[in-house]
Structure formats: C-alpha cells, structure tokens
Design goal:
The protein is 24% helix and 26% strand. The C terminus is likely disordered. The strands form five sheets. A nine-stranded mixed β-sheet has the order 6-5-7-8-4-9-10-11-12, with helices on both faces. Strands 13-14-16-15 form a four-stranded mixed β-sheet. The chain folds into three domains: 41 residues; 207 residues, Rossmann fold, CATH 3.40.50.300; 174 residues, Ribosomal Protein S5, domain 2 (2-Layer Sandwich), CATH 3.30.230. It contains ten helices and 21 strands. Keywords: ATP-binding, DNA damage, DNA repair, DNA-binding, Hydrolase, Metal-binding, Nucleotide-binding, Stress response, Zinc, Zinc-finger. GO terms for molecular function: ATP binding; ATP-dependent DNA damage sensor activity; damaged DNA binding; hydrolase activity; zinc ion binding. It comes from Janibacter cremeus. Belongs to the RecA family. RadA subfamily.
Amino acid sequence: MASKKTPVHRCSECGWTSVKWVGRCGECQAWGTVEEVGGATTRTFAAARVERPAVPIRQVDGDHAAHRSCGVPEFDRVLGGGLVPGSVVLVAGEPGIGKSTLLLDVAARVGEGRRVLYISGEESAAQVRGRAERIGAITDGLYLASETDLATVLAQIDQVKPDLVVIDSVQTVASGEVDGAAGNVGQVREVAGSLIQAAKSAGFAMLLVGHVTKDGSIAGPRVLEHLVDVVVQFDGDRHSRLRLVRAVKNRYGPTDEVGCFDLHDTGIVGLSDPSGLFLSSRHITVPGTCATVTLEGRRPLVVEIQALVTPSQIPTPRRANVGLDSGRVAMIIAVLDKRAGAPIVNADTYVSTVGGVKITEPSSDLAVAVAIASAVLEQPVAHDLLALGEVGLSGEVRPAVGVARRLTEAARLGFRTALVPKGALADAAAPSGMEVVEVVDVASAIEQVRARPPSSRPRSVARPRLTP
C-alpha cells in the first residue's frame, strides 16, 4: 500500500476539488471560491474480495425498480408512476410555496397501508401534527419526529423501519463528524450521502426537501443533485393558488411531465383538469380576449390571453404584460403596426394571461396578436375560437409543436374553431366537430376573426379601423 499527501483546494459553492489553487472553479465557474482545505491521502489497495458477483443483465430482477403509487395522482405523474423502493427524491422550491404541505399529504396517503417516517428539522412534532389535522393527513402509519442530528435521524430510521422517509429539510440536519453549521457545503454533502446510503441499503424510498437560493437554484453543493435519483422543482406564484411540479431530473421516468395542484387553506389538491383555471367566463363576450393552447411538458393547457389598448397620455406609450415574455409581446406589437396597420404606436398596451400562468413558448404569439387586434377593433372574438402559432417579423405564422395534441384538448373543452399555421396538420386529422382554419400571416388571421363574430356583441362603440 502506498500513501501520498497532497494539498487539496475545494470550491465553497459546489465542492469541486483541485490539487492546485485556481481563481475560477472548474465546475460552477464561480470566481474566488476555491480555498485550500488541507491535505488528502491518496491510497492504493489490493483487490478486495467480491461478495456479490456480477450477473448477466437478463438475470437481474427488474421488480425491485417498479413504481409504487404514493396516492397522489399528480405527483405520481411527475415521478413517472410513483415512488421506486430505494430511490431518493429531492423536492426544491421557494419558502412557503407548499412543499411541506404536499409531502405531508403524500406521507399520510402512503401511511394508510405502509409505515412512513416524517423527520422535521424546522418544526416541532406538535406543529406538524397541527398542519396534518388541518389538511386531513392523520393516519396510524405516519410517524413524526423532530430531529436535526444525523446520527439520531439514522437511529430513528433503524427503529421504525419505514417504507418511506421524508426529511424536511436536508439543510437543517447536521453531522457531528463534520465541522461547520448545518447547511454548509460539507454538512449537506455528508448528510445527503449518509441518507442516500441508508435508503439504498435498506430499500426504502426517501423524499428530501431542499431550499433554494435567491436566483431559484437549489441551495448547497451541486453534487447534491447528482447524488439523488429524482429532482423535483416546485413552482408557483405566491399570490396564486396554482402550483406546478416539474421533474428536472428523473432516473425512473420522463422529465417532461407536469403536475398541477391547487393550494388552499385546507391543504393541497391535485388538478387532473387545470385548464378551467386559465379561462374566464366564456359566456361573456368582451373585446381583447383570445384563447390558445400551451404545452407544459407533454401536457396541453388551454389558456386565455387578455389585451387592453387605450390612448396614451404620455409621450412614450406604456407596454405592460403579465405572464408573457416582454420581448415577444413588443415584437408582436411592432408586427401588428407594420404588417396589419394597427393604430397602436401611440397607445398604451396591456397584455396578461388568466389565472397567473406563465407562457414562455412562442406558440402563443398568434393568440396575443388576435387579442390585441380584438381590443383595437372593439370586436370580441368568438367564445369557441382559439389561435396558436408563432409569429415572425415579416408577419408570417409558423407551425408549433404538437398541434394535434393541443387541438384534441381544446375540442374536449368545447372549442369549435381553431386558427393554425398553414400545413400544421399535414400528417394528422382535425378533431371531430372542430373547424381548423389555416392562416399564412397575421393579417389573414385577423380577417378570419372578423368574419366569425360572436353570437352576441357588446354595445355599439366607435371602432378604429384595422387595415390588413
């Protein structure tokens, strides 16, 4: 056996190590975070005795990696079918977004037939019990403990022998074998490594709650995301009841599924059909509204876009939007002004989505253009009409991804007319009962809207001319 002492320099942000000092971390690219932490011992050992020899892949039992439902269908959707025994799931999100409420609900549902251990490092067991009573998460199979010492947490796991362990949160647990306060890079690495090893060896699933930084990334070393099997991001506006759960990393399923939840005073409820949250009353015909279909992962959501155009009282008109990309909205306004002759250069323009949903994909461009044109014309769009497609600078409408899947969801919700780019349904058929109108540019889309007025119009008002 040979032993050699070499100095080690470690990044305080991500834990990356180097044998020499560098000004910039080679992993996270942060400046000034690499510091010398002492010496490391490099050892070479003789080959050890193999206790579990390798076997042919056909003889490996795949049932050990089968999903087991956690009782919350929307959470199962994100995980790929449920929790896998021995898997470790990291759930990250901003404070107060609803992580603890969701995981307590999951723990209670799993605890109806199996043993679940809920470790809270931020609240006492009595506080967790109070929340459980409020959301109806009281079950005999759910065990509560308030611990922040890693050794005690492992002892609790050995004593209870659970099928599921929830750690809330991993940044509050500390090990006495590592220097520093709970939450620093060394502590998080040691705690996560010990908990993951316990889960893999004993075969129980584990849910870890993780904090986030100001920019929304997961706090702690980057190695934490590499160690766990699944990374789930909890998103949502604090002023909205809607919560979206996305899988950023998933070793057991897809990463393009999204779970929708409704957070209210009595708990959190999964939404199997959340499109109704993003639509206003379709029986009221108001100028400046148009529906579209956006994709959250593989899930189509019907969203309503509202626009308001008013004469500006200041030299520089206002351009405000909520839930949409400001750059794309400004581009659509310029295209309407140049290619469709819309008199909105000296007008204040406000664009918003309904329900607090955020749209980032360009397939909503045509609906934004139709909503703004409807506001300028003071002519409502038919309540059963929607538009989808990307708008270019020359005014053309380009196809979007998954048009057939979007139209199927819209037809299910009662929409009967769809404005789509030309050739968008070349390889698929239109849904039964839906009229699909192909348009080549913004001007032709606006003409189609004007040719399909709603059944009831608002009171007669002065309408500015919109010249194609």
